[in-house]
Amino acid sequence: TDLSHIRNFSIVAHIDHGKSTLADRLIQMTDTVAERDMKEQMLDAMDIERERGITIKANTVRIDYTAVDGEQYVLNLIDTPGHVDFAYEVSRSMRAVEGSLLVVDSTQGVEAQTLANVYQAIDANHEIVPVLNKIDLPATDCDRVAEQIEDVIGIDASDAIRVSAKTGVGIRETLEAIIHRLPAPTGDRDAPLKAMLVDSWYDAYLGVVVLVRIMDGVLKKGDRVRMMQNGSVHHVDRIGVFRPAMTVVDQLGPGEIGFLTASIKQVRDTKVGDTITHEKRGTDKPLPGFKPSVPVVFCGLFPVDNAEFEDLRDAIEKLALNDASFSYEMETSAALGFGFRCGFLGLLHLEVIRDRIEREYDIDLITTAPSVIYHIYGRDGEVTELHNPADMPDPSTIDHIEEPRIKATILVPDDFLGDVLKLCQDRRGIQMDLTYAGSRAMVVYDLPLNEVVFDFYDRLKSVTKGYASFDYQLLGYRTDNLVKMQVLVNDEPVDALSTMVHRDRAEQRGRAMCEKLKDLIPRHMFKIPIQAAIGGKVIARETLAALRKDVTAKCYGGDVTRKKKLLEKQKAGKKKMRQFGKVEIPQQAFISALKMD
Ligand code: GTP
């Protein structure tokens, strides 16, 4: 296709503002998919994505569009992941296209992820077309939202398109805006091949599938190509485009977006952002700005039932096949037995992987406290990365410790502002900015990532009744007074509950954790001390009293069904318990104990 008739774009939006619905509508209006094959949320492939409504992998579709003026266009839509954890993937896919539709729910207005994503688009020099969605709803207020887009984002919204992705109003206008307002791609057919690796995933039939955007040159079936990051060479055995079903084509030229397969074994061998060129007469100038995506949050995953360790290994290996940003290594813990220490891009990523293991592979897991990476500066001048509080060196050998900090942006209605400020303050936040847009406040905080990884989202949602939106980016590392807090149950340290905390908060955290555990651990036949300690010094303590023998004793033998029910309940509880020395700790305790109120 001639370049002037190609348009490449992505859709940026806050979650639930209607990105997927709009994409579906664009596909439908252009008859890309036969009506009978059209299912809701065409672009969200995986079940879990559908359930959570989160698009994780970038998806792509090529749309043939006959414009009002009769010209034929090829539109390539790259669907970017909407969540902050995947910020780097978002930024790469943005660089593969020239423009964005900025979708804002006209009943809601601009939210934190709207901002984060649109800034990425602006960074990538995109032409941006604002789309005000959900105009079919009574609460729609396009004028207010357009004004807000201008105030907060600073782009012209006077010619924003008013759309209902639900009813189809404004879809034709959106397609016309894509061809008239977004620029065509540029590129040189005769130059050496330069293709951006936008995404890759493992397909059971085809092996690794690589999504590419051709910048210069032409890619053909049978070509031998080189990944410029690691120099590996592959024989291209298939190229094609997504309509959205995979459709084989002969070649891909400049400005085009499609896929290649080349008998690549692992997703790990395909780095998002890498440049692909020909083995012979290739370019020697890779595309700028490549960086590998690195995990920032770590936690241990252990099977509740030790016998399921091999199943867990199998599940983790399979998931890792398709997710190069997820790292893992085997870990053994005195208390939890064999498991894996896993690294994730962020909390959502962690949750998604954990859920998939539990659901798709049916393995009950114990998740240890999520930890960030600390930089430990030893007295001997050496710097080490600490991924697991259990590996913390002897404090007497440490000079100082640095922790990662983030810049968090929160948008919240005025009424809840006080609660949000208090929450951030409680989490050792430093306020950087506070501005207003209509009746909403935008607060920017510098926060320690370790105060955010566990339950910050949950707390934020609950104190704002779901009205706040949140996004963050890493700021860098800073020194603080951090210590490792251990938890001892019946005098045995439970590594899985060890956390790094700020010294000033340690007592308070320790007390809260002991109190929680006291409620979460069932009584035993003996007294159980529960303690929090820093470097051998106990800072908090609770005692769980001993219990009588028989749970059914107080039923006086009369009510048989009640007795049975109790016994069954006890049995079900057993399944999810772990033995620590002489004490059984329910799985739920590990998660709940770490939540702070
Ligand atoms: P993620 O892909 O999960 O990030 O969200 P999204 O932005 O794609 O939102 P999605 O398309 O899933 O839409 C969110 C909800 O809004 C769904 O329940 C849609 O049915 C609904 N919705 C989308 N567009 C419209 C619209 O124009 N009008 C109305 N009334 N509802 C809409």
UniProtKB/TrEMBL annotation:
Protein's GO biological process: positive regulation of translation
Membrane topology: Peripheral membrane protein
Keyword Protein biosynthesis: yes
Localization of this protein: Cell membrane
CDD domains, A to Z: EF4_II, EF4_III, LepA, lepA_C
Catalysis performed (reactions): GTP + H2O = GDP + phosphate + H(+)
Major place of residence: membrane
Tr-type G domain boundaries: 4-186
SUPFAM superfamilies: EF-G C-terminal domain-like, P-loop containing nucleoside triphosphate hydrolases
Residues that coordinate or bind GTP: D16, H17, G18, K19, S20, T21, N133, K134, I135, D136
GO CC annotations on file: plasma membrane
HAMAP family per UniProt: LepA (MF_00071)
Family: Belongs to the TRAFAC class translation factor GTPase superfamily. Classic translation factor GTPase family. LepA subfamily.
Function according to Swiss-Prot or TrEMBL: Required for accurate and efficient protein synthesis under certain stress conditions. May act as a fidelity factor of the translation reaction, by catalyzing a one-codon backward translocation of tRNAs on improperly translocated ribosomes. Back-translocation proceeds from a post-translocation (POST) complex to a pre-translocation (PRE) complex, thus giving elongation factor G a second chance to translocate the tRNAs correctly. Binds to ribosomes in a GTP-dependent manner.
Name the record gives this protein: Elongation factor 4
Species annotation: Poseidonocella pacifica
Gene: lepA
